[in-house]
Amino acid sequence: MHDTKERLLKTNFPNLQRSDLDTLQVNLGYTCNQSCKHCHVNAGPNRTETMALEHINDILSFIKNNNIKKLDLTGGAPELNKHFRYLVSEARALDVSVIDRCNLTILNEEGQQGLAKFLADNQVEVVASLPCYSKINVDEQRGKGVFEQSINGLKELNTLGYGKKGSGLILNLMYNPVGAFLPPAQDSLEKEYKQKLFNDFEIEFSNLYTLTNMPIMRFGSTLISKGEFDNYIDLLKSSHSDNNLQTVMCRNLISIDWQGYIYDCDFNQMLDMPTSFINKHKTHISELVTDNLLNSPIQIGEHCYGCTAGTGSSCGGALS
């Protein structure tokens, strides 16, 4: 696989500083039951990295001591970490909102019986990956049979109340392009998704988020192989909007890797660009003092244009 890091380090992206911290995004490991072409984590069934209970307890201690209100769980498939349900239960006991970034097919995997009900019982917000409402596009990007399994997962979540008005159970879908182009306008695409999924499958959901593909790991390597890397970077840069700089997710979020080290975002984590406060080395969540975060500089690179291109892009969807 081609490494894109050296191509991204030299940049003219505007300098960024941190605001108040309100969200921890925790990568529970790179093990996944899928191997998607766009994956910026390079996750898959053969990856064995997974967060140990020791670091999960460090995260819970940090949450308790720093009044964190939102915990965003990602992977790989975060549910494949054997401590996933423990972390969710303990965080909810602290009155912390929990987001599970779910690939949907995990709901029917061996050993995951009762997962959907567990999420509902704990009022976990589900952000579900569904890059298209077309079977052909989804299976091409994520693997044969994934679309059908994803639809089955959505139906199960709907049965429990997810995505239904008045249920309090939030089900958001995540769209990302199937190629080297920007996502369309989020509002209009959401209307298409809602109409198509309801008409074809009677599926309901709360909101649609659009996410720009990042030129790193698996997707970045594919761009290089196809000779499209430079053109894609040019597209991101030419589509940059300063209006998105104030609301990029890295200003209020820190990303924590499976070993407990902190980064400005999940993308920097995959590029091994850590946030550092102690002797210019990696900082572990157990060492972090939040006073060091406010107004601290954020590590930037050419990939950052992916968050500010067009209407902007974040783990919470478009920025404008």
Summarize it.
This protein is α/β, with parallel strands linked by helices and 320 residues long.
Explain what you see:
The chain is globular. It has 320 residues and is α/β, with parallel strands linked by helices. The protein has one domain (19-213, 244-297): TIM Barrel, CATH 3.20.20.70. Strand 2 (70-74), helix 3 (84-93) and strand 3 (97-102) form a beta-alpha-beta unit. An eight-stranded mixed sheet has the order 6-5-4-3-2-1-7-8. It has helices at residues 5-8, 53-66, 84-93, 115-121, 135-142, 146-159, 186-201, 217-225, 229-238, 266-270, 305-308; strands spanning 23-27, 70-74, 97-102, 125-129, 171-175, 207-210, 253-256, 262-263.
Helix and strand topology:
Blueprint lengths: L4 H4 L14 E5 L25 H14 L3 E5 L9 H10 L3 E6 L12 H7 L3 E5 L5 H8 L3 H14 L11 E5 L10 H16 L5 E4 L6 H9 L3 H10 L14 E4 L5 E2 L2 H5 L34 H4 L12
Parallel strand pairs: 1-2, 1-7, 2-3, 3-4, 4-5, 5-6
Antiparallel strand pairs: 7-8
| pLDDT < 50 stretches | none
Q: Which CATH class? A: Alpha Beta
Q: Name the beta content range.
A: 5-15%
Largest sheet geometry: 8 strands, mixed
Which short descriptors sum up this protein?
alpha/beta, 8 strands, 11% strand, 320 residues, 8-stranded mixed sheet, 11 helices, TIM Barrel, single chain
